[in-house]
Amino acid sequence: MENERQAVISAVEEAYVAGVQNKADLALARKGFAAEFQMLTYSNDAVDNKITVEALVERVKKAKAENPGLVTTHKILLADVVGNAGFVKIELHRNGVYFFTDYLLLYKFSDGWKIVAKTYTKDPAFAQA
User: Fold this and answer.
1) Could you say which architecture CATH assigns to the domain 2-128?
2) Parts of the chain with a pLDDT under 50
């Protein structure tokens, strides 16, 4: 079970932290994201957007263009695996400042663990956890 937990963490660190957040590299991201991936956004008491991995990478590219020195670091707060389903709670910092807490859901496919969904919060109170 610990090997699977580590595999889930590795998938998140490689595809999401490195591929999306630090390199904005769609090819690298796609290795760890399911084609069906959706990031769900929330505002005004409703889920208002479903964003693809391609759109997520474009958002990060835009942020990096506006701030070329942008570096994202992370802290895994929780990772759990039961059978072929996994979950990671990860805190992200940009240039040392708290930015997001993300909740990533993964499934294990024949070619490894893939991120299938993301929800998140920007609430600074979560940075204290």
Assistant:
1) Roll (3.10)
2) 126-129
